[in-house]
Amino acid sequence: MTQFDLNAALSEGVKKTHGFLEVSRSSSGIPIGIPVTVATGAENGPTLVVTAAVHGSEVIGTMIVSRFFKSLDPECLKGTCIGIPVMNMSAFEAESRMSALDQFNLGALFPGDPDGSISSRIAYKFWTQIARRTDCLVDLHGQDHFWQPTSSVVMGKPQPEGNIPPAIYQKCLQAARAFGVRHVWRTDHPRNIAEALINEKGVPAIRAEFGGVVDFRAIGKYVGLGVQGLTNVMKWMKMMEGSIVEPDFKTCVLDEDAMFSSLGGLWSTEAEVGDKVDAGTLVGTIADPFTGDVLQEIRAPFSGLVTMLWASPLIKPAALALGMGKPVEYI
User: Fold this and answer.
1) pTM exceeding the 0.70 threshold for the entire prediction
2) What is the architecture of the domain spanning 259-324?
3) What is the pLDDT of residues 102-130, one digit of tens each?
4) Are 144 and 105 in contact (CB under 8 A)?
5) Can you tell me the distance from the alpha carbon of 182 to that of 6, in angstroms, rounded to the nearest whole number?
6) Domain ranges in the chain?
7) Phi first, then psi: what are they for 98, rounded to 5°?
8) Does residue 325 contact residue 255 with C-beta atoms inside 8 Å?
């Protein structure tokens, strides 16, 4: 992929451009950086930034970005769309959540550091070269080897309960509704993730999660939903003509909580993501791999929806075994 000047790519008129923002070089001289696709429209307008594979094992976002940009016609676009199909290339190659170069979680390193670890330098390049330009960010995540999430949008809570200004919180909800998922998870966003920092600057930013199945042959369904979701967000931003494709359901806004394993062992559950469970319901067990004795029971801490499940028969200690959501409202 050709290294390019992003400023030049943004000023070259109505076209799609693929390039590479180099951050460093590996020991063998291989460029390390961020692959970028830019679509500049026929008219001036806002900028949408779409990112994927911040966690390299979550490949579904890459599939969505590549298909979305392949179908995008710059002649029908008002403004600019910037896509990053793989934010964390070394993790993507290793099919790992963490960088294969420094073992850091890129998603928790923003706004980055030009003199830090290689992952921190990648975060800094993204923050200074791309994130500052956006009028809306959609960060795509999804199922991997170990977790099954519901298809949802994740965002922070509004002030004073959280750190998102109320007006931006409402815009995030509008973007989530336009994207078209059944659930919105409200979480206590740490301030070192890109969405939280962008929200603080008065710009809507959401994280989309896709999942519910481990069988990769079923991923095509979610890729289609992701492409439709991004198209809807562009229509919501007035970047594209046409009406938003409205889902035939209300979106449930949930306050998200998580239960972790206290030890490792064999994981067993009969639950499915999206299930409604009552407080105290036994959702899963962890057993001794040698004796079969149950070592820990994972129970629902409140009545609500199962939003995420550990998806491997072998669970690690201190792993996120169960995500639960408590309904707040429907939008």
Assistant:
1) yes
2) Beta Barrel (2.40)
3) 999 999 999 999 999 999 999 999 999 99
4) no
5) 36
6) 6-236, 259-324
7) -100, 155
8) yes
